[in-house]
Specification:
The chain is of the alpha/beta class. The chain has helices at residues 10-21, 33-42, 59-68, 85-93, 106-120, 153-164, 172-180, 191-202, and strands at residues 2-6, 26-30, 47-51, 76-80, 98-101, 128-130, 133-136, 141-144, 147-149, 170-171, 207-210, 214-217. The structure holds calcium ion. Residues 2-117 form the Response regulatory domain.
């Protein structure tokens, strides 16, 4: 899952970075509203964490601009130092999906992110289950036929992307964007390597290569 953090407080941004990377999210970070508006026009994110007091374009203006584009329904969680009720109402009315008042607990942040992602994927169920594989976003645990399977954070993330829509091809571009964001994949974490590892752990039938396009998970026969 690729998350865009828009926050000019560097210490806070670093804290969020450590917390979310540990959970296997891909986190891209920008410090001002204008760069963020540009990134949101050009690239695809699964979720946005938005501070309101930002240089160059404030968070509320950015949110209004984003929602005025109509087709961009990316979930937005507002991180605000302002706990005035009026600000919260304005944020929600401008198109935010949820908010947290600083200082907040990182466990609460993680839980709210999971809930927003679940909703944006049209699920009420917290677990993803398909063809004997169960994936739990709250614990990042994967089971195959009720047996735990150990995964690296990158392997987990890739499987998660594929299991959101079983049977549907996910393109290589989309997977790369979700897994690496603006970072480099590094030699040990290329898509091919990760797919190879997942097949070894979960059976060779689960993930099907669609040549020249991408991958999809399939019901094993
Ligand atoms: Ca700020």
């Amino acid at each position: 899952m690729r998350v865009l953090l828009i926050e000019d407080d560097r210490a806070l941004a670093r804290g969020i970075h450590v917390a979310l990377r540990g959970e296997g999210y891909t986190l891209d970070w920008l410090e001002d509203g204008q760069s963020a508006a540009h990134a949101l026009r050009c690239e695809r994110f699964d979720l946005v964490l938005l501070d309101l007091g930002l240089p160059r374009l404030d968070g509320m203006a950015l949110l209004r601009e984003l929602r005025s584009q109509g087709e961009n329904a990316v979930p937005v969680l507002v991180l605000t130092a302002r706990d005035a009720m009026e600000d919260r109402i304005q944020g929600l009315d401008a198109g935010a999906d949820d908010y947290l008042v600083k200082p907040f607990d990182v466990d609460e942040l993680k839980a709210r992110i999971r809930a927003l992602l679940r909703r944006s994927q049209g699920r009420a169920q917290p677990l993803l289950e398909f063809s004997g594989i169960t994936l739990d976003p709250a614990t990042q645990q994967v089971h195959r036929n009720a047996q735990p399977v150990s995964m690296t954070p990158m392997e987990y993330q890739l499987l998660h992307q594929l299991m959101i829509r079983p049977g549907v091809v996910v393109t290589r571009e989309r997977l790369s964007s979700a897994l690496y964001g603006w970072q480099d994949s590094g030699p040990g974490n290329t898509l091919e390597v990760l797919i190879h590892n997942l097949r070894k752990k979960l059976g060779s039938e689960l993930i099907r290569t669609v040549r020249g396009v991408g991958y999809r998970v399939e019901q094993s026969r």
